[in-house]
Amino acid sequence: MTTPTRPAGIVPAQAIGRLIAAGAALAKPGIEADQIQPASLDLRLGPKAYRVRASFLPGPDASVIDKVAPLAMHEVDLRRGAVLEKGCVYIVPLLEKLKLPADLAASANPKSSTGRLDIFTRLIADNARSFDQVPAGYRGGLYLEISPRTFSVLVREGDRLNQLRFRYGAPGLDDAALRQRHAADPLIERRRGEAPARLQDGLLVTIDLKGERGRSVIGYRAKRHTPVVDLRRIGAYDPAEFWEALPARPDGTLILNPDDFYILASAERFRVPHDLAAEMIAYDTAMGEFRIHYAGFFDPGFGWSAAHRRGTRAVLEVRSHEVPFLLEHGQGVGRLVFEKLSEATDRAYGGAIGSNYAGQSLTLAKQFRR
C-alpha cells in the first residue's frame, strides 16, 4: 500500500499546531501558542550561549556541539539576561527540537525586529552543509548563530530572534502562475506614472529614494557607539539616539557607506493572498555590492487588510560591502517569490493577531518609539 502524496505547500498555522501535537516540533518547556505565526513557528533562545572565535558549518559527519567545543571562548548565561557584544559571534542552543516526517523540510529566517536591529542570525542543524536549511526527516536539536552587527543587545532565555517555515515538496509559483494571480487581483502596486510591475523569477522589488507624499525622510542610517538595546523594552528608545534620518535628495540618489547599516523602503506596495506565503530573496550579486533584507518571510495576509487595500511597503535592511555604492530611486534590489500553502490558513498577518508591522510605511524596530 502506497502512502498518499501530500500537496506541496508551506505549512500554515493550524497545521503547525497539528505537527506540534504529533511531536514533530517539541520543547521543554512546551511550545507556547503565540509562537505559531500564520505560516511559521517562532524559535526561542535556550539558557546559555557560547562565544566562539568563528562562524562554521558542522558538515555531514559532525554535530554543532562537536564543532563548538574547540572554538568556544567562554559560556554566557542567558537565564537572567546577558549582553551580546556587536562584532562577536555566539552559538545558542534553542529550546525547540525537531522530529520531522520524511516528506517535511524546513527553512529559517530572522524575525522582522531582528533584521531591523542588524542582528545577523543563521540557523544551524546537526550535520548541516548549509545555514537556515533543515532537511526532510531531520531529527535533532537546533542552534542559532548570532552576530550583532550595529548595536550590542541584551537577550534572555526565551527571546525569539528567528522563525522556522515548514515545507512539503516544492510549492513555488512560476512567473506564468504569478502573472495570472496578479492579473486577477494585484499583488503589487506601483506609483502612478511609474513602469508596471516586473516579473522575473518573482516580483522585482525596487528602492524608494523619493519618499512618500508628505514625507521628506526616505530612510535611516544607524549611528555608531550607541547604548545597548534590550530586546524586551518595546517602544522604549529614542530613535534620535540610535538613528540618523535621511532626507530625500532632489536627484533621488543615496550613496551607501561601506558597512554602515540603513533602513529603507520599497517603492512598491505588496499584498500576499491568504493562500500564499512569500519570501524576499536577500541578495543577488548581479545587483551590486550590497545586501538587502535579512528578514525575508512575508506571511499570508501581509498588506491585505481592508484598511490597507493598496498593500504595504516592504521595509529593507541594507548594507553595502567593500566599496561605497550609489543607489538610485527605482533601482532593483531584490525579488519577492511566492509559494502556495499546503492548505488554507486560519490565521492571517495583521493587527488582529498583534503583528507589529501591519500597515507599516517606514518603520524602525519595535524597540524604538514611533
In short, what is this structure?
The chain has 370 residues and is mainly beta. It has five helices and 27 strands.
Characterization of the model:
The protein is mostly beta strands and 370 residues long. It is built from 5 helices and 27 strands. It has helices at 13-21, 64-71, 112-116, 175-184, 239-242; strands at 9-10, 25-27, 36-37, 40-44, 48-52, 72-77, 82-84, 89-99, 104-110, 119-125, 133-134, 139-148, 153-155, 160-168, 188-189, 203-206, 217-222, 229-230, 243-247, 253-256, 261-270, 276-281, 290-292, 297-298, 312-320, 325-328, 332-340. The N and C termini lie far apart (58 Å). The model has no long low-confidence stretch (mean pLDDT 89).
Strands, helices and their partners?
Layout: E1 9-10, H1 13-21, E2 25-27, E3 36-37, E4 40-44, E5 48-52, H2 64-71, E6 72-77, E7 82-84, E8 89-99, E9 104-110, H3 112-116, E10 119-125, E11 133-134, E12 139-148, E13 153-155, E14 160-168, H4 175-184, E15 188-189, E16 203-206, E17 217-222, E18 229-230, H5 239-242, E19 243-247, E20 253-256, E21 261-270, E22 276-281, E23 290-292, E24 297-298, E25 312-320, E26 325-328, E27 332-340
Parallel strand pairs: 13-18
Antiparallel strand pairs: 1-14, 2-8, 3-4, 4-14, 5-6, 5-8, 7-13, 8-12, 9-11, 9-14, 10-12, 15-21, 16-27, 17-19, 17-21, 20-26, 21-25, 22-24, 22-27, 23-25
Tell me the β content: 35-45%
The number of distinct structural domains comes to: 2
- Under CATH, the topology of the largest domain is which? Deoxyuridine 5'-Triphosphate Nucleotidohydrolase, Chain A
Q: Can you give the mean pLDDT?
A: 89
Rg (C-alpha, Å): 20 Å
What's the tally of helices?
Answer: 5
Helix content: under 10%
Cα end-to-end separation? 58 Å
What's the β-strand tally? Answer: 27
CATH superfamily of the largest domain: Deoxyuridine triphosphatase (dUTPase)
Largest sheet descriptor: 6 strands, antiparallel
Under CATH at level 1, the class of the largest domain stands as Mainly Beta
Q: Which CATH architecture of the largest domain is right?
A: Distorted Sandwich
Uncertain stretches of 5 or more adjacent residues: none
Shape: globular
